[in-house]
Amino acid sequence: MSQLIFHGACGQSWTGLTRAHCSGCHEVFVSSGFDKHQRINGGKVTCLPPADVGLIAREKPWGVLWGMPGGYWDDTEGGDA
Ligand SMILES: [Zn+2]
Ligand SMILES: [Zn+2]
User: Fold this and answer.
1) In the prediction, which pLDDT does 21 show?
2) pLDDT in tens, 43-62
3) Measured on CA atoms in the order 71, 17, 52, 35, is the torsion positive or negative?
4) Phi then psi for 58, rounded to 5 degrees?
5) For residue 5, is pLDDT > 70?
6) How far is the CA of 62 from the centre of ligand 2 (A)?
7) How far is Cα 53 from Cα 27, in angstroms, rounded to an integer?
8) Which of 46, 53, 64, 65 has the fewest CB atoms within 10 Å around its CB?
9) How far apart are the first and last CA of the chain?
10) Which ligand has the nearest atom to the CA of 35?
11) The whole model's pTM is what?
């Protein structure tokens, strides 16, 4: 079942409950990629450019999804593979 999630602050929408939308840079990640994207240092969250931490972009019907090359993309969830 496809479930569209919408972030009113930036207008981005995406599908998949295990995907993470960054409230800092408003990119969408698979959960494993999100862990790489954000660096937490002394309670301060820093957004790293997704490409710089080895993530690759995939075009989705709703926009760009960042994830691990060859990794788990949650494509069975949401039915939007
Ligand atoms: Zn970010
Ligand atoms: Zn957003």
Assistant:
1) 96
2) 998 999 999 999 999 999 99
3) negative
4) -130, 135
5) yes
6) 13
7) 14
8) 46
9) 12
10) 1
11) 0.82
